[in-house]
UniProtKB/TrEMBL annotation:
Organism, scientific name: Flavobacterium cheniae
Superkingdom in the source lineage: Bacteria
Coiled coil: none
Annotated protein name in UniProt: TraB family protein
């Protein structure tokens, strides 16, 4: 009987009983020898309303620098991005897809971007997908990152990046080009209808500050890029950011703005920081 209970206890402790994170986009980081509080904020890269609330503006006021995923005010950013948008080893969309499917994508891009797929034949397919994001919302495109940068500029403070353009673009070399092409084709065949629904759902989850829901939506998606590649898209990058965040916070109080999908989960930024001994608590 004793052996039975020991076995049962071992099994139970193997399950994740970690409490779900609170619904909040803004989190205060303190403790573990920090002289000043820093803040972590979950962003969304495309939205209808990028207005920042009082608590977020106060956190920006009480910190001395802004760290985004990328240093988005870097003057050579666009040039650097162009250098890494092409597929490696001569891969082309026209060979990843058969002629009929390539024609479907070509007509779709002509309809939505007024450009032929032939112009993007060497581009990583996911890069083409991102160009279509503004078409997925029924409102003028807004960016939370742009608003964060505007406030930071008004405060005469600097913007930095947790990773480089090269780091971020390598992610889409690690995810197979075939899967990226397959998802672009699905988008073309569906004429954006499903994508619009998913974007609307994501924006609602974000408005509810439900970071656990954001991660679950990615888990449950039938888009293989997000559901099957979370180590590459999220977890590995989160782990790479932690040493940079720790070093930065020790130097001066910092506001970190990263995609909300990076916050939740056992390998999300919040719990990774807690494992390093920091107190990370929701700001309400």
């Amino acid at each position: 009987m004793k052996k039975f209970f020991i076995t049962l206890l071992t099994l139970l402790t193997g399950f994740s009983f970690s409490q779900e994170l609170e619904k909040s986009l803004l989190w205060k980081i303190s403790g573990n020898g920090l002289k000043y509080d820093s803040y972590l904020f979950g962003t969304i890269h495309i939205t209808c309303d990028a207005t920042l609330d009082y608590n977020t503006l106060s956190a920006l006021e009480n910190t001395k620098q802004l760290y985004l995923e990328l240093d988005m005010d870097e003057k050579s950013m666009q040039m650097q991005m162009m250098q890494h948008m092409m597929m490696k080893d001569g891969a082309k969309l026209s060979t990843l897809l058969n002629s009929e499917d390539f024609k479907t994508v070509d007509e779709f891009l002509k309809k939505n971007l007024n450009m032929s797929a032939k112009l993007f034949d060497s581009f990583k397919p996911f890069m083409i997908t991102t160009m279509l994001y503004p078409k997925m919302i029924d409102c003028p495109f807004q960016s939370v990152e742009s608003v964060l940068m505007k406030v930071t500029e008004e405060q005469n403070e600097e913007v930095f990046g947790l990773e480089t353009i090269e780091d971020q673009m390598k992610v889409f070399d690690a995810i197979s080009y075939e899967i990226q092409a397959e998802e672009l084709l699905k988008m073309a065949k569906g004429d954006l209808e499903k994508d619009k629904d998913e974007m609307n759902k994501m924006m609602k989850i974000y408005q509810n500050k439900d970071i656990e829901g954001m991660l679950k939506m990615m888990d449950d998606s039938d888009n293989k890029i997000t559901s099957e590649n979370q180590d590459v898209l999220l977890n590995n990058r989160n782990k790479n950011w932690i040493p940079i965040m720790i070093k930065t916070m020790k130097d001066k109080p910092t506001f970190f703005g990263v995609g909300a999908g990076h916050l939740a989960g056992e390998e999300g930024v919040i719990k990774l920081l807690r494992k390093q001994g920091y107190k990370v608590e929701a700001v309400k």
